[in-house]
Specification:
heterodimer, A: mainly alpha, 2 domains, two-stranded antiparallel ribbon, globular, B: alpha/beta, 11 helices
Amino acid sequence: MAHLKRSFGIGLWFMFLTLPLVVVRVNTLSQEVQWRWSNLLWVGVGAFAIAWFWQFSINRRAAGRASTVADKPSLAQRLADDPVLSRRVLLGAAAVAIVFPWLVSTGQNFYHVNVMVSALIFVVLGLGLNITVGLAGLLDLGYIAFFAVGAYTYALLSKNFDLGFWTCLPLGGLMGMLFGVILGFPILRLRGDYLAIVTLGFGAITKIVLENWDTLFGGAAGLANIPRPELFGLLLDGRQKSVYSYYIVLALVALTIFVTNRLKNSRIGHAWMALREDEIASVAMGVDMARTKLSAYALGAFWAGLVGVVFAAHNNFINPDSFTFMDSAMVLAMVVLGGMGSILGVIIAALALKLLPEYLRAFAEYRMLVFGAVMVLMMIFRPQGLISDTRRKYDYDGADGANGEGDHGGK
Amino acid sequence: MAENKRSKLLEVRGLTMDFGGLRAIDSVDLDIFAGEIVALIGPNGAGKTTFFNCVTGIYEPTAGDVLIHPPGGVSRRINGMKPNRITALGMARTFQNIRLFPAMTVLENVMIGRHCRTATTIIDAILRSRRAVREERETVDQSYRLLEKVGLADSADEFARNLAYGAQRRLEIARALATDPFLLLLDEPAAGMNPQETSELDELIVRIRAEEQLAILLIEHDMKLVMNISDRIYVMEYGKEIAQGTPREIKENKKVIEAYLGEEVHA
């Protein structure tokens, strides 16, 4: 009852607020004022319904929090606990990913493959940032700068020194890593807001340097005629080139998943997480703060640099407009939306955030509106992200054996 | 035991810590010998936790010396050393306001304690080299054993944040033990515990000393616990050390009674 009353009040309030906007209309041609009262009714009913539904879901969530947490294992947890099931799911996903270009591209139509390549590039970026932000808890608002470092490394090396794609791929990653360490050093002691501002500044500086150093980076016009990845000197047509890029970036995605997964459950990954959870406690437990933070920055930046090379090669052309703050925010949104630290979640969020806008071009005008609304709703109803991070369970042979013996003795 | 008593583990000389114009610790001396349980007591704001922070490297003391003499190791002055270095040298601590890693499992919390005793590198971890696998195996087994010791083995896979308060305190102790210390520093381990939990803790601390053969320095307000288990007691007030001695001596010390214990002793 209190809900209804409150929703009713909210409805009235919205009717009052929107009165001048939706009801009164001055027709300047006929010089008369129109009163559209029916609009007001819709606003009232709409606000009432939304407010009621809102409170309903908040209540349900509050009630659900107490009971469902323990007894219902999430899908991700089930996958983590059941190696057979997770292997099957993984194999299935891999099979779909491998045949994908042959399913969607016919003849000279390879639009979907190109869309997928750019989506997968962002999957790698998301997984890379997931190391820095999701695992080590170091907010980075200028992550796209490392992506730019990789892209420009390849563009410049191929232009000036005629180095091939496969030589530049690791070099791009290493350059990203180097810049990660360069950024990491001065901000080791910073936390929270200060860290966010410095990384934001780093991203901005990178873009400004790229835009204004015309002689080296080509300025705002960027660099063109970047060679595509070569395949044993074979001549590929447009579609084959796209499919080839697709497989390269798919392999990178697989590599990223593999490496991140290994690291996450290792001594290093645990140290990152401990640092994220409580810096003072982890330092007091013997974790070297400087080294651990730097490694998180360096490894996060490594993937961005690596995939930057692929980006440059795939597009033939790069300019500073591909490396704006919006892109950094996009990658960060993928990590937050997907669930900090969760590999599966970040992949799903990255695909969703890149593919949906691409296929919903009709609604392009509302893209940012929907984006914002989704973010707000997620933070309220699922602050842990789409798929919350699962923890690995360890079995303890030695200890179990001892227990078992004890039990037998008792019997 | 008598032989052990002679070997000194921690030696603090004239430790002084200023925060701006405030002198939080004023030339405090403290010694800890092998196998001892030493308590540091004093009214709130006496500088006990600041003393801990100076000794464990969270703060760098303004003046004085903190010297450690690890058993079978090299003596060194550790003023201003980073906390992780000091932990690696063999001093581990717990915190007054519990500082666990809430979103990690109980077992993982203890595994972090093994961080400074293992050496798996990033490359090892990615390739799952023989060293990485072996170290992980050892870390898991040792951590699990420590959990058994403090009675938390059943909740090894729980998130640390879901543990009850007393269990979180015990987990902090297990995590500190995982770093293989020769000296364990406990900052108000019994704070917020009920009498039964406190007496279990009492037992646990004595048992740990015996099994792990380490010395323990604890800050505590629970006088019953302190008088029960301590070999020696140091008393601080307003940053100064006002007394030291055995529990019996402290109970009868005029200065201490005036400063702090008065009512409790007479009651």
